[in-house]
Design goal:
This protein is α+β, with helices and mostly antiparallel strands and about 375 residues long. The chain has helices at about 5-25, 25-35, 40-50, 70-80, 85-100, 105-115, 230-265, 275-300, 310-335, 345-360, 365-375; strands at about 120-125, 140-145, 145-160, 165-170, 180-190, 195-200, 205-220, 265, 270.
């Protein structure tokens, strides 16, 4: 199989690498975290100007027409630099719902502002009692004339405290043979009845608990091109593939930082990297990174799978390996640094925190291992 990049993909990789190398050092990232909203609006504008926000969207919608491999390349670099900006929330998750669930007229109305960097979006789906069950939706939306009234409480909405628009899932009726009874609605974050409680997550990013109390939206705000649950599943599968790629970039950088530390740190008058036991641990870290990379390739190639069951099995398999690899690499990186590894001043601890969050996002390793077992393993294997 040919894993060589196309000329366009090589240019994308080089331009992103150049941008982040000059604008996203560890110290610069700390400065961005201190800004209102927890990220740099200037960097977000640069992402939009470079076409990175438009990357996953079809050319017919004003996007760049990029595929899963393009997103994978981008997310790997985001992982290496621990990027704070709401790319996953806006372009991948909410963007995925628009790509797969919005009508042509809805896409024409909303996508230009999103890909132009004028607005950020969030997806509000998780609920406190749901755990990792995607189908658990207690939020409701009832029709009133030509409008819908939404009552919902959503938790862990990524970048939900700063988003301009929020896509919220709500139950509009019972599940039937023809549909899940769940629909998706686009809500203006400033609409009456919307309240948000933002907070920092342990990896330095932002999330929010969002409550919708009697929020009225027009019928045109309901995504109507596909069943709501099917749209959510496709967007979440794209999110899994993207975060697997981010985790690979995060692991790779954590390994590089650790190996460099082993070469510089001296004990008993010699660099500790000369100790064979520590060399073995570094090699084990490399093996785990490469295993995660291979499964990320598999997930990336499976994003376009038309069989939902096969696609979801692929995502679960990737999630299991990447989760295991991320935990191992993160733990080893911190341990090999010693006490300094858990301090705020040491970058490797921040990489470990991000890997910890990525492991539980969209369902932790145990959840996906169970889902994979119930499915009978990988489809087609």
């Amino acid at each position: 199989m040919d894993f060589d990049l196309s000329e366009e993909q090589s240019l994308l990789r080089d331009s992103v690498a150049k941008l982040l190398a000059g604008s996203y050092s560890f110290e610069q990232r700390k400065a961005y975290r201190a800004l209102p909203g927890g990220y740099s609006r200037e960097m977000w504008r640069q992402f939009a100007d470079l076409g990175l926000v438009a990357l996953p969207f079809a050319e017919a919608d004003g996007g760049m027409g990029g595929g899963p491999v393009d997103v994978m390349l981008l997310m790997e670099f985001f992982g290496r630099h621990l990027v704070l900006e709401p790319y996953l929330a806006t372009a991948v998750l909410a963007g995925g719902c628009l790509r797969h669930g919005a009508s042509e007229a809805q896409r024409a109305e909303w996508i230009p502002g999103l890909i132009g960097g004028d607005s950020t979006w969030a997806l509000a789906h998780a609920e406190r009692a749901a755990r990792f069950d995607l189908t658990h939706v207690a939020a409701t939306a009832r029709r009133e004339g030509d409008s819908w009234i939404i009552d919902a409480g959503k938790s862990l909405v990524l970048h939900g405290d700063t988003a301009d628009r929020i896509i919220v899932s709500a139950r509009t009726g019972p599940a039937t043979a023809g549909g899940s009874g769940v629909d998706l609605f686009v809500v203006d974050a400033a609409a009456p009845g919307v309240s948000r409680r933002g907070y920092a997550t342990q990896d330095g990013l932002r999330a929010a608990d969002v409550v919708f109390r009697g929020v009225r939206v027009a019928d045109s705000a309901r995504l109507s091109a596909e069943d709501g649950m099917a749209t959510l599943q496709r967007a979440f599968d794209e999110g899994i593939a993207a975060t697997c790629a981010e985790a690979v970039g995060t692991m790779e950088c954590a390994l590089e930082i650790t190996v460099e530390y082993l070469k510089q740190r001296k004990q008993f008058g010699v660099a500790i990297g000369s100790f064979q036991a520590l060399q073995h641990r570094a090699v084990d870290m490399l093996v785990m990174v490469e295993q995660a990379r291979s499964m990320t390739y598999f997930a990336t190639m499976s994003v376009a799978e038309t069989d939902p069951a096969a696609r979801q099995s692929a995502m679960s398999a990737a999630k299991v390996q990447v989760g295991r690899s991320g935990r191992y690499v993160g733990e080893q990186a911190v341990q090999l640094h010693g006490g300094i590894g858990v301090t705020e001043e040491c970058s490797v601890g921040h990489y470990y925190r991000r890997l910890t969050l990525l492991e539980i996002l969209f369902g932790d390793t145990h959840h996906h291992l169970g889902r994979l077992a119930l499915a009978g393993g990988l489809r087609g294997e």
